[in-house]
Amino acid sequence: MNSYHQDQIPSGMLLRVVQDKQLTIAYYDLLYGLTSDHQDIEIIDDIRFDEVNHLSMFTNLFTDLYGEKPDLPVPEISQISSFIDGIKKSIKKELDSYSFYNDVYFTDTNIMVRDVFARALTDEIRHAAKYNFIYTQLIERKQ
Prior knowledge:
The structure is a single chain. This protein has a single domain, classed as Ferritin (Up-down Bundle), CATH 1.20.1260. The protein starts with 10 loop residues before the first helix and ends with a helix. With 143 residues, the protein is mostly helical. The chain contains four helices and no strands.
């Protein structure tokens, strides 16, 4: 996503963030179903819980800033080819989100926007670390 510097995130950009959160939750629902490992399930469930909270925070932020709820069509998700591929994509997704949220945090001057993005960016980097842990465990199990 593009960088910007202003006192309020553009509505289209925030709408994409909200829709992306909805898509992420649906993706993690699929990923969750590809493993039977209790520890993996627990980690994915914890991350998914955070993502649901992020969806709520970003939806409320959108409503507060623009006076209406965002349009949230049902997300379309393609199948995940394998659990390990899903984990790798999740690591990348979390790191990309962290980078974007960090950019918003340091360029937006609206304290309400900054607070929401600060909370989300700290969670995203933690999520990437947790998915990296799962990935490492998967590699070790193959050896």
